[in-house]
Amino acid sequence: MGLMIRDQRSGRNPGRRGAPTRGAVRVTPPAPRSWPRLGMPSLQGLRGSGRRLQQLLWPLLLVVLGMGLYELVDRLQPLAQRPVSVINVEGDLQYIDRASVQAALAPYQQKSLVTIDLDALRADLLAMPWVAGASVRRVWPDQLVINLDEHLPVARWGDDALLNNNGRAFTPEQIDSFQGLPLLNGPERAKKRVMQNYQQFNRLLRPHGHEVARLEMRDRGSWFLTTRGGIEMLLGRDDVLDKMQRFLTIDRLMLAERRELIARVDLRYSNGMAVAWREPATVNGE
């Protein structure tokens, strides 16, 4: 907005165009007020201050940390030296003897939780005949938790050992109570294969009223099977499952009513089989 001043003596407006009026007063507007400028610290200065602060704080922080660790070690040392007082043994155990487990754990009971050798303890547990798997873990401050897995006996292997369902042999001190299990035999390297064939044969035979009592893989790879009904089967080396299917088909069609009279079945033929009877008999298709 403009500023206008009238001369009271002449009554004229000095703002109009023309020659200046005599006695007019010229007014100069005031200069703008200047405010003091506030200084801001430079970025480089801040960085320099931050570095100096870090240089001062790091030694102090390290001292505090060292004192804290010393105090922690001092408090935990008595607990670390405390002997193991509780050992929990977990697992669905049927055959593992409690006294055998206690004997295996005895050398470790006076050791502290920190110094106890878990790998050595686990190895001692796995050396027990019935233990198929073992895990050991620490529970602070003075407990051990042990989980044991037992072998599941499925069959006998030879005269002195048992086989679990994975074809793994183990040798308990007494196996007399397992004489009812099927007897499997074969080369030592073939345990898993014998177990696999045993399981496959049983799956085929059981729906038809048969069950494996004995299975043997002989040196040249031929298979010999005996059912619980006393029927001996010579299966040869190749295509043994197909041969078993062939026997079951003929058994269902022709032999089911006379099973008790069958002594031996020879399935080593490519397209048939031979039957040996317990007493003389004539059977069509023999």
TrEMBL record:
Pfam family, one: FtsQ_DivIB_C
Keywords linked to the UniProt accession: Cell cycle, Cell division, Cell inner membrane, Cell membrane, Membrane, Transmembrane, Transmembrane helix
Family annotation (PROSITE patterns): POTRA
Biased composition range(s): Basic and acidic residues: 1-10
Function (record text): Essential cell division protein. May link together the upstream cell division proteins, which are predominantly cytoplasmic, with the downstream cell division proteins, which are predominantly periplasmic. May control correct divisome assembly.
Subunit structure of this chain's protein: Part of a complex composed of FtsB, FtsL and FtsQ.
Family from the record: Belongs to the FtsQ/DivIB family. FtsQ subfamily.
Name the UniProt record assigns to this protein: Cell division protein FtsQ
Organism (species): Halopseudomonas formosensis
